[in-house]
Specification:
The structure holds two protein chains of two kinds.
Chain A: E1 3-7, H1 8-18, E2 23-26, H2 33-40, H3 43-47, H4 58-70, E3 75-80, H5 81-86, H6 88-97, E4 103-109, H7 122-129, E5 133-134, H8 139-156, E6 160-165, H9 166-169, E7 171-176, H10 199-222, E8 227-229, E9 237-241, H11 244-249, E10 261-264, E11 266-267, H12 271-280, E12 284-287, H13 293-301, E13 308-309, H14 324-331, H15 357-369, E14 377-378, H16 403-413, E15 419-424, H17 425-441, E16 446-452, H18 470-477, E17 484-487, H19 494-506, E18 511-516, H20 520-530
Parallel strand pairs in A: 2-3, 3-4, 4-6, 5-6, 9-10, 9-12, 12-13, 14-15, 15-16, 16-18, 17-18
Antiparallel strand pairs in A: 1-7, 5-11, 8-10
Chain B: E1 2-10, H1 15-28, E2 32-36, E3 47-55, E4 69-74, H2 77-82, E5 87-96, H3 109-117, E6 122-125, H4 127-133, H5 140-148, H6 156-167, H7 172-195
Helix pairs in contact in B: 1-6, 4-5, 5-7, 6-7
The chains are: A alpha/beta, B alpha/beta.
Bound molecules: thiamine diphosphate (TPP).
Thiamine diphosphate binds near residues 58, 80 and 424 of chain A.
């Protein structure tokens, strides 16, 4: 069979295409973005007419994928871990409705917060929804699990989750691809009420989900992705989940672990395999990237006679991603150290590009704010968040997408007048519009600056749903057109920008300033591709 | 055969192209390749690194264990030192001496180069100058790859093959430019070797 060198994210995408997927729905977010981009660049996906346009946010993506499943086709929705918070409502409820065509929710977690606000572990949300979770240990499993995932989903008419982490998503290895399955033809659910979650129906649907729990456990016990490995040295038994399995194997010549071992790639956790391990061994070490999810769970169902080690007892750090050296230490194996980083090396944080429009916005805003007082600029998530760092130090918050406008409103309600929001164009259409409506409805004294670079820049310059629409949206939501100002953020316009900002900051109501200039990265990328 | 390589630099300096060329060359040699790379936030002018592992056997971990990297290949001098905890006791540092100054507290260059030269196995070359001299100013990353090539145990012709497959779509001119840069790097490396009396 053919072998491809694929990122973990790309292996998920190829697995989905080969598994007969008809549509992928997503909003960009590191480390999940490359899944959708791979499908967007795939010739086969074009031939198969696979849907692969970006959605406005993770909730709309999740719902569209559920709709495609309703219509009988196989669909996948992808997001970064915090995206699942945004999509949590349809996600949890899709477990109650169940599916028609196979439905996979792929979530990419970011332990160590390489590019995120937190390192939440999506397995908890998968368990919360009570659906099967697949967690690949390598690129091959990422492919196989996705390709087979649709079958599992359709077998029990349940959505399933695939959980990957940054390290797997952004690491390449050879993947053996298998033949491509045909796509489902359209079909409607047998039961016309399946998706109607009125309480009376929802209670019945919930029972079906509860009844399925035992089936999900049986599937886990016999899954090829969960495996018991015999071992001579029973002083220790090891549970290794997902990519932690690789870090474990790195420590042994020819990847032969001397201890009995359970490799976990499918949840709910395979209790019987773990009971077998526990009965054989003197103590247990749990290796998992993310929160101590399995460690907590097994502590709950095993008796407490033997020691269970992991992130909770300090055998491994409580936070941050694992690596082979940390695993070696937990195993009591000798480790190497390399040389210390000399003092001369200083930090090099990311920065706004030279010529970036966000720079001009912050230059002007800093000057305009001087007469209005400090610590009142709420911001959001995107390249412009780098305005929190020197030399600008312009913004005072970054919490979750869309929060700038609503936090500014709440602060204004508390008397912080004026309050300012700085938000990007894609973040505005992701989750800012509804907050702006709240502010309009109360005519809150806030100034919203939409730094519109007509791209989703932070994640690599994807197309923004907002492009060309922002002014109309603001007026449509009800902002007084006289207080919707469009500016060109270039150094030459500095004085004009400061003047308009000061005027709007002084206005006792909702104003929106749209600073519109395309991202210089996408400008140069488009120039190159036209050549 | 097993080579663990850390590639380092600043976002946008082209370390992923170096990784791709080595990776493609290794595949041509029927070796296993595992390569973890950085996407996202730090690509905006921040410190970036990639772990590249090549072996004639299956590779388990996507990350190189501390103290086990055979080579650090860096396109920026300060970044070469950031990953020293990964370098093995017999490992090599191959770095450009051209600083990328985008922070106000960038260290004094002479002090930095002295620090670099204080390590045992170092090849430090001014890649930007070399690239300018041979009129391939955009290929200083490939100059560094050339300088590192004697330590990779991958024949030069395979690296050239890697360049051909990576830049194939961009045309013969770009391919030749990069091959010129590669060979210039090899020459610089040899020169450095002789000068330092190794
Ligand atoms: C819920 C959620 N989804 C996705 C992300 C990832 N993300 C962070 S910033 C960003 C892009 C924001 O684009 P925009 O607002 O246009 O700002 P720009 O980066 O272009 O300046 C994305 C997709 C996230 N942090 N949270």
């Amino acid at each position: 069979m053919k072998k491809l060198l694929l990122l973990g994210a790309e292996a998920v995408a190829q697995g989905a295409i080969d598994g007969g997927m008809s549509g992928i729905y997503a909003y960009p977010g590191t480390p999940s973005t490359e899944i959708t981009e791979y499908v967007q660049n795939s010739k086969i996906a074009t031939e198969r007419k696979i849907h692969r346009q970006w959605s406005a946010n993770e909730k709309t993506a999740m719902e569209s994928a559920l709709g495609m499943s309703y219509a009988g086709k196989r669909a996948m929705v992808c997001m970064k871990h915090v995206g699942l918070n945004v999509a949590a409502d349809p996600f949890i409820n899709s477990a109650i409705t169940g599916v028609n065509g196979g439905l996979i929710i792929t979530v990419a977690d970011d332990p160590s917060m390489h590019s995120s606000q937190n390192e939440q572990d999506s397995r908890y949300l998968g368990k919360f929804a009570m659906i099967p979770i697949l967690e690949p240990c390598n690129q091959q499993e990422a492919y196989d699990m996705t390709r087979e995932g649709f079958v599992l989903s359709e077998k029990y008419k349940t959505p399933i989750m695939i959980r990957i982490t940054t390290r797997l998503s952004h690491s390449r290895y050879g993947v053996e691809v298998k033949e491509m399955k045909v796509q489902n033809s359209a079909s409607l659910p047998d039961d016309p009420k399946q998706f109607v979650l009125l309480p009376a129906i929802a209670r019945k649907r919930y029972k079906i989900l509860l009844d399925n729990q035992i089936n999900f456990e049986i599937e886990s016990e016999k899954s090829l992705f969960n495996k018991f490995y015999e071992g001579e040295d029973k002083s220790l038994g090891i549970i290794a989940c997902g990519i932690a399995f690789n870090y474990l194997m790195e420590n042994y010549d020819d990847q032969k672990c001397p201890h009995p071992l359970v490799k976990i790639g499918q949840y709910p956790i395979p209790k019987k395999l773990i009971d077998k391990l526990y009965s054989q061994c003197e103590k247990i070490l749990v290796l998992e990237d993310g929160y101590p999810f399995v460690e907590e769970t097994v502590k709950g169902f095993l008796d407490s006679n033997k020691k269970i080690c992991g992130r909770l007892d300090g055998s491994l750090p409580r936070d941050g991603e694992l690596n082979p050296t940390l695993v070696a230490k937990a195993l009591g194996l000798p480790t190497k150290e390399g040389l210390p980083i000399p003092e001369i090396v200083v930090n090099r944080p990311p920065e706004l590009c030279n010529g970036c429009s966000h720079r001009d916005v912050y230059e002007a805003l800093n000057e305009a704010m001087k007469s209005f007082g400090e610590k009142r600029v709420f911001s959001d998530i995107g390249c412009y968040t780098l305005g929190a760092l020197p030399p600008y130090n312009s913004i005072n918050s970054c919490v979750d997408m869309g929060a700038s406008i609503t936090m500014a409103k709440g602060a204004a309600d508390a008397g912080l007048i004026p309050s300012v929001a700085v938000i990007g164009d894609s973040t505005f259409t992701h989750s800012g519009i509804t907050g702006l409506l709240d502010a309009v409805n109360e005519n809150s004294p806030i100034t919203v600056i939409i730094s519109d670079n007509s791209a989703v820049a932070m994640t690599g310059g994807q197309q923004s749903s907002a492009t060309g629409k922002i002014k109309d949206i603001c007026i449509g939501v009800g902002v007084n057109p006289e207080h919707v100002k469009v500016l060109l953020p270039v150094p030459k316009q500095h004085n004009e920008m400061v003047k308009v900002m000061k005027e709007e900051l002084a206005y006792n109501g909702v104003s929106v300033i749209i600073a519109q200039r395309e991202c210089i990265q996408t400008v140069s990328k488009n120039k190159k591709s036209k050549k | 055969m097993k080579k663990d390589i850390i590639l380092s630099g600043v976002g946008g300096q082209g370390i992923l192209s170096i990784a791709a060329i080595i990776g493609l060359a290794a595949i041509e040699k029927k070796l296993f390749v595992k390569q973890s790379e950085v996407h996202g936030m730090s690509q905006r002018g921040g410190a970036v690194q990639s772990h590249l592992r090549i072996s004639d056997k299956e590779i388990a971990s996507d990350l190189i264990p501390y103290g086990e990297s055979d080579i650090i290949i860096s396109v920026e001098p300060m970044e070469a030192l950031r990953y020293l905890p990964f370098l093995s006791s017999h490992g090599w540092i191959i770095t450009s001496t051209t600083p990328f100054v985008n922070i106000p507290n960038y260290p004094d260059l002479d002090a930095l180069l002295n620090q670099i030269n204080s390590y045992k196995n170092v090849i430090a070359i001014n890649a930007d100058e070399v690239a300018r001299r041979i009129k391939t100013p955009k290929a200083s990353n490939v100059v560094i790859l050339g300088a590192a090539s004697p330590f990779l145990e991958i024949p030069l012709e395979n690296l050239e093959g890697g360049i051909r497959s990576l830049f194939g779509r961009k045309g013969e001119e770009i391919i030749n430019m990069n091959i010129t840069a590669l060979n210039a790097g090899v020459e610089e490396s040899k020169k450095y070797y002789q000068l330092s009396g190794l």
